[in-house]
Amino acid sequence: MAATDKALAGLRQMIASGELGPGAKFPPEPELCDHLGVSRSSLREAVRSLGALGVIESRHGSGTYVSALDPAAIIGRFSLSVELIPLEGVLELLEVRRVLEAHATAAAAARQDPELAAHLSEVLDRLESTTDATEIQHLDAEFHGLICAAGGNPTVTALTGVIRGRGGHYRIFEPGADFDAIKQTSDRGHREILAAITTRDPAAAATAASAHIAQTELWLRALRPIPQPALP
Fold it and tell me: Could you give the CA distance from residue 214 to residue 53 in angstroms, rounded to a whole number?
């Protein structure tokens, strides 16, 4: 095992075991090097790696600490890797998103928040009235993000957001022969989701969300768009 890998494995074990819990300050560097049996350079490289993952944080003038280990925050860092996944991998991720959003949409319907339906309806009114590809993508993300947040699980919201972010590079709402059919199908799917949430029917909400995302998978498989830069 390389020295840096040894240092990384040691730190991971200390955190995973609870020896260094959320918010805990790291021991002094010499003490930690002795404990792990690694050099300072290897330890620092391991610390940088965990910092990039959101697991630890350095506080200027204070030292190095374990982060709050918030699942949503850590999952959000996955976007650095997910952004590199090609279309075939994105299609696999969409299957995961389909399961997660079906669950989140059912939970949102069960929570019976009267303000949610009104907010979603307003977003859909704007979405259905535009043919601008950039605006469509932003409003679509807002619609799904609101539902996931209403589902009440920040980790699910973060993970679906990461998947949706990469999927957004493969744009299906671009001017072309299929645009009208795609837009009409998508708008109809959104309305079916909203109807289930409005009538507080979790089972129908889950079914509508799953069907809507499955349709997106079908369009991506058929069109196989070239990935584009992220939208501002």
Answer: 31
Q: Which run of H or of E encompasses 43?
A: helix 40-52
CB distance 188 to 180 below 8 Å: no
Residue 195 CB neighbour total at 10 angstroms: 14
Helix, coil or strand: residue 80: helix
The pTM for the full model equals 0.85
Q: In the structure, how many helices (H) and strands (E) does the chain have? A: 11, 2
**Which pLDDT band holds residue 148 (cuts at 50, 70, 90)?**
very high
**If you average pLDDT over every residue of the chain, what do you get?**
92
pLDDT digits (tens, 9 = 90+) for 48-89: 999 988 999 988 888 899 999 999 999 988 887 888 899 999
- Answer positive or negative: Cα dihedral of 221, 222, 228, 231: negative
Dist CA 107 CA 174 (whole Å): 32
Short-list 83, 70, 66, CA closest to 21 = 66
Specify whether the CB–CB gap between 180 and 164 falls below 8 A: no
